[in-house]
Design brief:
mainly beta, Lipocalin, globular
Amino acid sequence: MLNLHKKTFRAVRNAANGDVGDETLFHYSQEADVVWAEYAGGTVVKGFLIAKMLKNSVLDMRYEHLNTAGELMTGKCISTPEILPDGRIRLHEKWQWTSRDLSSGESVVEEIIG
C-alpha cells in the first residue's frame, strides 16, 4: 500500500474546466486505507478531500473547495499512482464535478520533495 502521509503535491496539468493550477498545493495525511488532504492556492481559496485507498493504491476520492469566484465546488475523482524514477509519486486523476455543469476532466499532480 502506498504511503501518502505528510506528503505535499502540486498540480502539473489540469483540464481547462478545472479549478486547480500549479499554484495549488495539496497536503496529504493517511491512516491505513483512509487518505485526506487540505489544499489551497491559485483559484482555490480552501479545499478538502477524503479518499479510500483501493487495490494497487488507487484512490477513490471526493473533494470540495471554495474558489476565488465565490463558488462552492464539489466533485469525485479516481486517482492512480505512478512512482517516478526519482522516487516521487505522480497521481493521474480522472475527475468529475458534482456541482456546476457536471463536466469531467483529467489532471496530474506530483509530489514535492524538500
